[in-house]
Amino acid sequence: MDKIISTAIVLDRDNIDTDQIIPAKFLKSTNKEGFGDWLFYNWRYDENDNSKDDFEFLKYQKESKILIAGNNFGCGSSREHAAWAIADYGIEVVISSQFADIFKGNALNNGIVPITVSEACLKALMQYFEREKSCPIEIDIEEQTLMVDAKDIFINVQFDIDPLKKKFILTGMTEIEYLVQHQEDVINFEKTHEL
Amino acid sequence: MGRTIIDKIWDVHVVKSVTDEVDMLYIDRHFIHEVTSPQAFSGLKEKGLNVLRPERVTAVADHNVPTKNQHLPIENELSKKQVDTLLSNCKDHSIELFGIGHEKNGIVHVVGPENGLTQPGMTIVCGDSHTSTHGAFGAIAFGIGTSQVEQVLASQCLLLSRPKTMKVEVNGKLGAGVGAKDVVLYIISKLGTEGATGHFVEYAGDVFSNFSMEERMTVCNMSIEMGARGGLVGIDDTTINYVIERATISTEKQEFWKTLNSDSDAKYDQTITFQAEEIHPMVTTGTSPDTGVDIMETVSSSVRNSKKGLDYMGLKNDQPMLGTKIDYVFIGSCTNSRIEDLRAVAGIVEGHRKPEGVTVWIVPGSNKVKDQAIDEGLDKIFLEAGFEFREPGCSACLAMNDDKIPSGALCISTSNRNFEGRQGDGARTVLASPITAAASAIKGKITDPRTYLN
């Protein structure tokens, strides 16, 4: 995966916590499957499990792979179920002006790319994509660029990603594979580690 | 240039630096529980991997356990399956488990410290964001996701970016009726839920030096609610005395721990200072932990509320918090369920009785806390006040078990999060200290605990 070209969903709310992304009642599972059905459950469904049509999330193309969300996305609980729900729903990139640290790590471990942009850039993206629900955004992970090139907008920004985590995303290698490959370093470290 | 305790502990745990940003960090202690570990164990199985250091792992069942009739089988099938899965995973991998009914069972962040497993200078992780609690011991402690739980099980290491550091200093003397919970709610209200993102926080100054270990745990516990990766307090005699009562520690090691403290000229990425006298009993007003206000103020004195949050809470901007009618009181969670919390609650409620129509649950943090409370006769005080004294677990903090607040009901809670639906679908949560919750319980409305102090 090096390029993602997709329409976007805008969720203009700050501090979206992982309890909203996946409520605790869905954490009783012992596997990782099916969490997409429960993504934003209490915003998507009423207490009788009927769809809440006024939830803005549902007004965008279901196939969108990019979520544009308000500041401090993924705060609160460490539950990786939030990342599983987002990935299972089909979202591959989340754009925000800030991510909570644990969520960011969880996202990367599930192939979701968290892209941090400036507040001004986030605002511009939100305003445009709230209107333009069929316009694509192009994310190039190798080049670390986010580009929108349409008739009345041009955005081309660089984003940061740690080189190691970038390598993992591009090659599909996982952190656990890396760590297990370096087990000898751990064993050597333990020989002198006192605590 | 001097170094912080955060840098010193971090540096002695670096197995290797991988990039400019990322280190491979060794983990000394790994706590696991039933909700965020099953997928980690199945991941190991799929990959044909083993647990590298089972002796560094301790398991508890806490998130999903009933707080009534723990001697009976769990009724909810999914919860039972999760707890049973933890049991079999621990058995298969020779991991020590404090399961339901075990004398050491309780909430993971209460159990680790009270059994001497949490020690200064350690790196400590758990698949739970409130792992920052263990920072009270001068440890680097933080919550991780399930993929990372699997990584630590397999390799005892994680790939982590180097931390930024922040010092939060509170000097002066706290007023009567103002405690650790008020201090941390105040700090969060000033910093915001994202104010410390990317940082480990060191709490320093008079207030934290004078705090007991349990009070320090309450503060460090809520570091995540200001976005911090973790929060800690330096290592002093209070720390060491607490640990040596619970574990055998050589004097050399005790001396070594003290060398880990921040140098006087240590440089932090950010330093913020507050004055203790400015802090009053705090209550939150919205659906984010940073919406705390002085209990004497109106809702509008929080700048962090959104219309959506206030609508959810059923509160108006010009409304005073004092006197707001409550339906439920929850005294528990990894923030405030320790013996000092229960003693403080008993001190307020002794000789009083809650009004009809208010439900009060006191859920001790562990079996040890529960037994201690019974030894001290606190259970009788709770019973006479009309409160339910339950068995240990995370309970209504996240309402994964049956302890749910009904939709629309207002609960004053000593837990750590007031997110929408956190304590049950549609439930409304006001976060407060144990004594504020206790005073409110006996009045049936939000009440200044100072009314009940001699």
Termini gap of chain B:
49 Å
Shape-level CATH architecture of the domain at 5-161 in chain B: 2-Layer Sandwich
Helix content of chain A: 25-40%
Number of strands of chain B: 19
Strands ordered across the widest β-sheet of chain B: 5-4-3-6-7
Q: Strand fraction band of chain A?
A: 15-25%
Q: Helical stretch count of chain B?
A: 15
Please state the structural category of chain B: alpha/beta
CATH architecture of the largest domain in chain A: Alpha-Beta Barrel
Query: Percent helix among the residues of chain B?
Result: 25-40%
Spell out the helices and strands of chain A N to C: EEHHEHEHEHEEEHHH
CATH topology of the domain at 5-161 in chain B: Aconitase, domain 3
What is the overall number of helices of chain A? 8
Q: Which regions of chain B have little confidence, pLDDT < 50, spanning 5+ residues?
A: none
Integer count of domains of chain A: 2
Which quaternary structure do these chains form?
A: heterodimer
Describe the overall structure.
The complex is a heterodimer of chains A (195) and B (454). Helix content of chain A is 33%, strand content 18%. Chain A has 195 residues and is an alpha/beta fold. Chain A has two domains: 3-161, Aconitase, domain 4 (Alpha-Beta Barrel); 162-195, no CATH class. The longest helix of chain A is centred in the middle third of the chain and has 13 residues, at 119-131. The termini of chain A are far apart. By secondary structure, chain B is an alpha/beta fold. Among the domains of chain B are: 5-161, Aconitase, domain 3 (2-Layer Sandwich), CATH 3.30.499.10; 298-449, Aconitase, domain 3. Chain B is built from 15 helices and 19 strands. Chain B has helices at residues 5-11, 38-47, 77-92, 108-114, 146-155, 180-191, 206-210, 213-221, 237-244, 251-259, 307-313, 339-349, 367-375, 378-384, 434-443, and strands at residues 14-17, 22-26, 29-33, 57-60, 96-98, 123-126, 140-143, 157-161, 164-171, 199-204, 230-233, 270-275, 282-284, 292-294, 328-331, 359-362, 388-389, 410-413, 428-431. Chain B has a five-stranded parallel sheet, with helices on both faces. Chain B has a five-stranded parallel sheet with strand order 17-16-15-18-19, with helices on one face. A four-stranded parallel sheet of chain B has the order 11-10-9-12. Chains A and B meet through helix 4, helix 6, helix 7 and helix 8 of A and strand 2, helix 2, helix 3, helix 5 and strand 8 of B.
